Amino acid sequence: MSHRLKIYFMVLGSLALFSSCCPARAQDRIMGQIQFVKSSKIVKTSGVWVDGQYVGYLGELDGGNKLRLLPGEHEVLIRQAGFEDFRQKVIIEPRKILDVHVVMEKDGGVAYPDSKTSSEIKLNVQPRRAAVFLDDNFVGHVQEYDGAGKGMLVFPGKHRITIALSGYRAFQTDVTLLPRQKFTLKTDLLEGSVNDADPLIKSEHPDTARANEVPAVAPSK
Q1: 197 or 101: whose pLDDT is higher?
Q2: With contact defined as beta carbons under 8 Å apart, do 55 and 118 qualify?
Q3: At residue 132, does pLDDT exceed 90?
Q4: Which of 44, 140, 146, 191 has the fewest C-beta atoms lying within 10 Å of its C-beta?
Q5: Is the separation of the CB atoms in 45 and 58 below 8 Å?
Q6: CB–CB of 58/48 below 8 Å?
Q7: Averaged over 104-109, what is the pLDDT?
């Protein structure tokens, strides 16, 4: 069985990656659950991959939006631009809740754009929980850069923006920004098959923003 078929999670209702022949109640009796214990505010906005697949940002996988998995071993990967990856292998037991304590450490090698000369990207995109990639580097989810006082500071120049979420067709565009230029991207992702998901959210080792290749790591003030 592939990693994709092992993942079962509930986000904004009920999402399942299993055949409809399996009754939900029967699944409930065997599923385990991960409960994330957050150490800081930055953790809430970090992206979550399970077995190499993006499942959302950590802050939404709480309360009624539960991250539920089939019993067995899984790899959890938490990513945030400007921070070291948090990676942990977990063993899920049937009907058990496993606490995962997430601690994000700053990446000391990250280069931040100068606020006096940087460009700014704002997003007006639906769904707002979709993952955002800049030049193929994961930089967060749409909601972080949508709204008054929110934005992404980037180095001036040419950049590729990719917005992707499982169940939707990925959107990608290239922009060339001048120093201090402000740019707003407005679009709605089109619904599609999980097969339409961009490779960036299906990769087992997705890139994050790193030193000397960091186009954006700083939110606007």
Answers
A1: 101
A2: no
A3: yes
A4: 191
A5: yes
A6: yes
A7: 87
Phi, psi for 18 (deg, rounded to 5): -135, 165
Residue 119: the pLDDT is 96
pLDDT at site 70: 93
52 CB burial (10 A radius; 0-12, 13-18, 19+): middle
Structure tokens belonging to residue 170: 């990925």
Q: State the architecture of 3-102 in CATH terms.
A: Sandwich (2.60)
For 82, the 3-state DSSP assignment is: coil
Rounded-to-integer distance, Cα 167 and Cα 40, Å:
30
Which ranges of 111-173 does DSSP label H, i.e. alpha helix?
none
pTM of the model: 0.76
Tell me if the domain spanning 119-219 has CATH number 2.60.40: yes
* Cα Rg, the chain, nearest whole Å: 18
Residues of the chain with CATH 2.60.40: 3-102, 119-219
Residues 176-183 have a mean pLDDT of 96
Q: Is the pLDDT of residue 221 over 70?
A: no
Give the burial string for 15-33 (b: 16+ CB within 10 Å, else e): beeeeeeeeeeeeeeebbb
- Which helix (DSSP H) or strand (DSSP E) does residue 47 occupy? strand 47-50
35-47: pLDDT as tens digits: 998 878 888 889 9
Task: Of 71, 81, 46, 83, give the one whose Cα is nearest residue 61.
Answer: 46
